[in-house]
Design a protein that fits this description.
single chain; 92 residues; alpha+beta; 4-stranded mixed β-sheet; 3 helices
């Protein structure tokens, strides 16, 4: 791995520094979350009072919204997110 990164392997903190991390509140509707995802090209975190409660990925959008024909305007992100995602320390 050190050859790939030209020396020491960077931590997650170093890789993510100065990069905005997209997030929404649990009450946000799917359309708003999907709009943010389309701009950032990534999944979106779901935060409730600054606590991570879920993540919403393109796979969630496809399998839990589109396939089930749910309205993106009427569906809260909290009802289709992946709850309680595993987390790691940013210093790994």
């Amino acid at each position: 791995m050190s050859q790939m990164f030209g020396g020491s392997v960077p931590t997650l903190r170093k890789l993510l520094v100065n990069k905005p991390i997209p997030y929404v509140r649990p009450s946000t509707n799917v359309r708003e979350a999907a709009n943010i995802m389309s701009k950032t090209g990534s999944a979106i975190l779901i935060l409730d009072s600054d606590e991570l409660v879920g993540i919403f990925t393109p796979k969630d959008l496809l399998n839990r919204v589109i396939v089930k024909k749910k309205s993106p305007d009427l569906t809260a992100i909290s009802s289709v997110m992946t709850p309680n995602p595993d987390c790691v320390s940013p210093d790994l």
